[in-house]
Amino acid sequence: MPNMEKTIVVRLEKTHKTNLGMHVDGLSLAVCLVEGRGLVAEWNAAFPSCAVEPGDRVVSVNGAQHPELVMEQLAAESVLQLVVAKQGALAAALAPQAQYSVQLRREESDTFGLEVNPDTAEVVQVLDDGRAAVWNAWHPFRALAVGDRIVEINGVHVGRHRLLETELDVDLVVLRGSGAAFGTFGVSFARVDEKLGFGLNKAMEVERMEGGGVAQLWNAANPINKLRLGDRILQANRKTGAAAMLGEMKSAGAKAGGAALGLVVARAERRFDAENQRFFSLKECQAEWPKDSQKRWGAMSSVQPEAAGPAGAAGATGSTFILELRHEGQGPGFDLDARKIAKVHDGGVLAAWNRQRPAQAAMVGDQVLEVNGFAGQKALEELKKSKTVRLTLLRQNAMSTFGVTFQRQAKEKLGFKTNEQLELARVEAEGLVPAWNAGNRLHQLHLGDRILQVGEVASAAEIFQRLQKAPELELVLARCPRRLDASGAVLTFRECQAAFGADAAARWAAMGPVPEAPAPPPKAPAPKEPAQFLRNTGNDDRPMLANESFYRSLADVRPSPGGGLRRGNAPALPAPPAPPAEAKPRSSFSCPCCNHLFHVFVEDGAYHTQPVSGALAGVRLQPQRDWVFKAFGRVFGATLSKRGKEDLVIDPGSLVLQSLKDAGAVAKWNQQQPAAAVVVGDLVLEVNSKPAHQALQELQAPEPDLQLLLARPLGGATFAVEPQVGKKGLDWQLSQNLVLITSPASDASADSDKAPELPWPVQGDKVVQVNQCVGLESMRKEIEKSKQLTIIVMRRR
């Protein structure tokens, strides 16, 4: 079987066409989609043996390897030389597809090595050493299996099955049958110089795993494609008959020095056990719980083949992510054991990365797949010698990471207890965490969440000390999976156990995914409103961008001469299947490939996408996968006059407002236009009618006036109120971040003749400006000392 890291070189020239016809993920550089037309499609037709396919990964373009440089080269250069890795770890993670394609070529005197039932078009046999067996060896994730049914040959309905006898080149569309209903994958042993480490039954199914063999080494290094009990061997090298396969396995170990052995395997169904946070096949479940295996199996979450594509895989087999570390010879800041992170060093480079990027933090147990593009032993060597390393990590559990910062006053309680593993074991009624949860219901801390770091400290003893004494706590946490119960409660499995006891596993399996926000009550159709956005600050929604069906609906969207977007003259595209749970109607997102903004909408029960029009037409963002937007806020404009140099600071990479200056141009604008107040966290879309990333230099220019177009990522409408201040000061109950813990009584309650001011703050709203103060500390002081307050409040939805 060939090396799974096989690479190809693709040379393209943008002469008469500028459309590559290929979507590349801006972070992982995985090929998400190859369109039917474009330069890549032409290359694939001319060089089918070196075709670029979804699941491949772009290693470099014109020598550039960094994702941002790769995306820049693809967009700007006319001559492109791409190095592409064929079906590596990312393709291995793809969930099984109900339908797949196969391309076979033969000589006139040869056959395809495939026997098909003429009545049902089902594959009856794959012959030893035939063309189909060769295809399987090279494409183990799309291997032909007995029971699969051919539905098309060269675009012709399967009724003309004789095309297999007359044509020399065939392009097959194949429907998965029961023989490999949960997909196929490959196992490659470079040298079998000891025992295999597994036993087979007469049906060629794995019935036992033995310690110390090459299979154990494979499983340790390839957690995505572990060989498990119940998996069935379809092919050994290029042999497909049972006797021939057993002979290949036996002879590989018998040869002096060992020999290579490549297996094609039909995957047994895997189900996820929430209590153990592990996947099991049925036979593994029976071995683990021999007395109540059927009950246990029924309570596990099923991973169905219909969850095709990367989105389905992320939940089924783990997720990959990339981080970059730079050090001056002190090492990357972590220890490895069996290529998994075993320890994060206090104050090390990795701890610093986690603190700065908590949503992309690495944790103990994450597996190192690649270092600077190298896998296996070369990856470990690269980790030791290079001062700049680009790590591709695999996380098999369902946890994501996030950050929370608390400012603690003297003797103020944290409001939670942890166990020895630093997992939240109890959340109390009072303290920092309950206050945080009250004001941040979309990012609450739950039982089971685990503290990974405090600042740049990752060791348990130091973390416990800092939790007791430190006045400022920068926490990096692992988010335990949540689900939505039928009662409407959002629960972790530990909370589910506390609530339902012995029935927790069954109850957990019946729960659904957690939506971003509660669904609004049914009401009459309203007029269309401008696009509304919410930035995704973690990695929860990324499967939406990884879902191939999402890009398929965008395949024929093109920039128009006027800078907007239009659809070509292609026939109407079919509606994608049911969207992922996190993709809501009236949400929007930025495609990480073409960087344009698109709307998501539902019409007549079908799921559609369309390019953004109106004020945002043609807006392009930098190629960062972080930019995923959800319906939650609004888009608005602001004009800043007599601007000082430090009145506002915008992060050049994310285009987000990082800080504002007290009594500056923004604070004055907010006082004049509280309904269009600008706050920290807002996303800048345009500067003086230019896309923001192209006009950042204008923020540094001496010209003081700015016209900004902004999106409200972190909340909804803003409004101003002038509350009465009593002798003891303002009586609002506010958290440390100035979020309202309870809804304050309106001034009308004190004076029945005074009409209540509308709108009026409610629980969960956030104070964003007090008089002309916009900084957190300055706003607190202004509330304490001033007897006359104009407060701008942002409604949190």
TrEMBL record:
Q: Which InterPro entries match?
A: PDZ, PDZ_sf
Top-level taxonomic group: Eukaryota
Q: Where is the composition biased (Pro residues)?
A: 515-528, 573-582
SMART domains attached here?
PDZ (SM00228)
Question: Which SUPFAM superfamilies does the entry link to?
Answer: PDZ domain-like
**Protein's name in the database:** PDZ domain-containing protein
Tell me where in this chain the PDZ domain is found.
9-88, 101-158, 186-269, 322-386
Region entry Disordered, spans? 512-543, 560-586
